[in-house]
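FAQ: What does a multi-protein file look like?

Like this. Sequence, then tokens, then the next protein.
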Amino acid sequence: MSDKFGIKPDDMMKIFAEFRLPQFADLEGLAQAQRRNLEALSAANRIALEGAQAVARRHMEIVQSAMTEMTDAMRSMSGTESPQDRATRQAELLKAGYERAVSNMKEIADLIQKSNAEALALLNKRFAEAMEEIKQMAAKQGGVARR
């Protein structure tokens, strides 16, 4: 009987039996490398969380500012000016509001991108270090273990 890929269980056991992994005598070195990996992941998560908090704070500031501006605009529109002047002012307020909204969206996107780039850079650096550590450990052990 075989699995959905056509591999028999006995064949699979043979494949696993022949598979060779490097044997590392320096288990403490591996444990330290794993700790550094977890520390890097934790730091990247912290950066991402701080970035999300900064985005949320800035978003709240933007919403509060927009509400204040909208209230001021409504007050200014209740004047006794001509319909043409009122229409002109409404168009100006609409244009200014749109430009602010686009600017705010760009600012939020930049905050998110910066946070993500910092977290990813930290993880990429640790990955490169981890690969170098593995190469050094393997070199100390003479490469792949033979059976």
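And here is the next protein:
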Amino acid sequence: MKKFLSLSLTFLMLQSAFCFALAPKNIFAQVQETLTNQLVVEMVKNKLSEEIIVAKIKSSKNSFDTSASSLQELKRNGVTDTVILAMVQKASGMEVSLANQTSSSNLIGTAIPDGTEIKIITTEEISGQKVVEGDPLTLKVSEDVIINGRIVVAKGTIVKGTVSSAKKKGFMGKGGDLSIRIESTETVDGQKLKLRAAKSGKGGDNMGSTVALTVLFGPLGLLRRGKEAKIKEGTILSAFTDETKSIMTN
């Protein structure tokens, strides 16, 4: 009898130790879980609340597909706009915040194609006499960018740029030189949008040659005549998106 009790006790201790050894691995696996579109759909079908799903998105790693077609598929599967927006924010590296979310039924996924033109306006005069290479520049979007009837980049949004080269006018009638680089702006849902454009000008000599302005991926035309390379305040420039971006729009 004593032998039997001893064997039973030993078996129970080994069983407990085995379960204890397995528990941390299960917990670790849960912590390391990577959320996908399908897992979010499953949470929705299991009738978890928006708050719980968003909290899970906020605290977990993800491998979300936020292309326009995938966002529309999420919508068809009953995923709310609040959850979709949280997924887009998380996938783009933004902080997910309930305060910044909306449950508006008008939200929809929209794709901004690479190469989309954006009109930009200078907010101050840029002179080769006053700026140096590396100086930051602040410009603005001059008109709404609209795709499929929805605004994806709003008029007045800040555009960031940099002076890529600047040379003052010289002696003997030598003109100045000025180049700027257009770098990025923001979409209506707060995502950074990379832009490509470079604008360069050559100051004219005493013979009255024109200042030719060009963009890296297309001509901008003529700006002005003169010795000093300048870009006037209120000058309209063209830039182009340097990536495809999926966003949420009203």
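Q: Is there any per-entry metadata?
A: Some entries carry free-text notes. For the entry above: Confidence is low (pLDDT under 50) at residues 23-31, 99-105, 199-226.
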